[in-house]
């Protein structure tokens, strides 16, 4: 064989979807649904500190993100997903551990750590209780201080679970500020992939008219047969089975036409005889 063989061009990779998420956010359920509905579109998770996620989305290092509200609504679109319970993290032998819930007033005499990455919005920017000598850099550092017996820490429940330790526990703060988690993305970059993920977090089914994903048959260009088509008989027929034919046998094993005996029709229900005049 002469000449050089042409190398086929590589198939372009399917465009992926990058989802940023802040500490405490749990995207696992939605990611699982994504893989079930869009197995050919890779989804990449991008863990980002809460105070950096806006910059990550502005730089297009992610397509959308699970963020903590508030966000800049002049730049971002956002769909609130859920609001978390606020808890106080304490050592297991602390007096607060003996009750199910507390108020902010109950913590007024306690040292309350206030990390620089705190996600709760406090009145006047200061949590209740006595301020620590120095603010820890991160929530993880604040948890270490609580474990060492230096104060308490008020956080959303998901962060208390994220930084769980055997020597610590947490209790609900009934009147503390709450943190809401939302799906956010740059409004001007509402791509098809973003629309698909919006449909998933909103709980739309794959057949939803508002979603982009379509059932497998529709994707392949197949259509379900209409009632008219389903009832049609032979080639170019009118759709009605012939008397005594296969279509009639399907109805009950016998032709639907009446039997002929002696030139008279005997079939079906007999009517009353007429009166003779």
Write up this protein:
Helix content is 21%, strand content 22%. By secondary structure, it is α/β, with parallel strands linked by helices. The chain is elongated.
Provide a quick synopsis of the model:
With 277 residues, this protein is an alpha/beta fold. The chain has helices at 28-37, 53-58, 139-147, 157-162, 192-201, 216-219, 227-231, 246-252; strands spanning 17-21, 43-47, 64-68, 76-83, 86-91, 101-102, 111-113, 130-131, 152-156, 168-173, 180-186, 259-261, 264-266.
Principal-axes geometry comes out as elongated
- Proportion of residues in extended strands: 15-25%
Biggest sheet overview: 6 strands, mixed
Distance between the termini: 102 Å
The string of secondary-structure elements, in order, is EHEHEEEEEEHEHEEHHHHEE
Mean pLDDT rating: 81
Chain-wise SSE layout:
Layout: E1 17-21, H1 28-37, E2 43-47, H2 53-58, E3 64-68, E4 76-83, E5 86-91, E6 101-102, E7 111-113, E8 130-131, H3 139-147, E9 152-156, H4 157-162, E10 168-173, E11 180-186, H5 192-201, H6 216-219, H7 227-231, H8 246-252, E12 259-261, E13 264-266
Parallel strand pairs: 1-2, 1-3, 6-10, 7-8, 7-9
Antiparallel strand pairs: 3-11, 4-11, 5-9, 5-10, 12-13
What labels would you give this structure?
alpha/beta, 22% strand, single chain, 13 strands, 21% helix, 5-stranded mixed β-sheet, 6-stranded mixed β-sheet, 277 residues, 8 helices
């Amino acid at each position: 064989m002469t000449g050089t063989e042409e190398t086929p061009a590589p198939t372009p990779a399917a465009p992926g979807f990058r989802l940023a998420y802040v500490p405490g956010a749990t995207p696992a359920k939605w990611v699982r649904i994504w893989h079930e509905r869009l197995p050919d579109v890779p989804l990449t998770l991008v863990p980002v500190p809460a105070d950096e996620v806006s910059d990550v989305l502005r730089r297009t290092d992610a397509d959308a993100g699970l963020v903590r509200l508030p966000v800049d609504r002049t730049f971002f679109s956002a769909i609130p997903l859920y609001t978390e319970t606020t808890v106080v993290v304490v050592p297991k032998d602390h007096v607060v551990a003996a009750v199910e819930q507390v108020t902010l007033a109950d913590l007024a005499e306690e040292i309350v750590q206030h990390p620089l990455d705190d996600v709760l919005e406090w009145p006047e920017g200061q949590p209740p209780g006595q301020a620590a000598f120095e603010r820890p850099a991160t929530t993880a550092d604040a948890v270490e201080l609580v474990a060492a017996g230096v104060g308490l820490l008020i956080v959303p429940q998901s962060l208390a679970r994220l930084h769980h330790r055997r020597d610590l526990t947490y209790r609900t703060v009934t009147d503390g500020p709450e943190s809401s988690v939302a799906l956010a993305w740059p409004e001007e970059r509402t791509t098809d992939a973003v629309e698909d993920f919006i449909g998933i977090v909103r709980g739309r089914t794959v057949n939803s008219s508002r979603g982009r994903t379509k059932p497998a048959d529709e994707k392949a260009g197949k259509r379900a047969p209409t009632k008219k088509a389903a009832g049609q008989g032979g080639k170019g027929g009118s759709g009605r089975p012939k008397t005594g034919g296969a279509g009639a046998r399907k109805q009950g094993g016998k032709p639907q036409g009446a039997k002929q005996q002696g030139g008279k029709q005997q079939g079906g229900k007999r009517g009353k005889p007429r009166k003779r005049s």
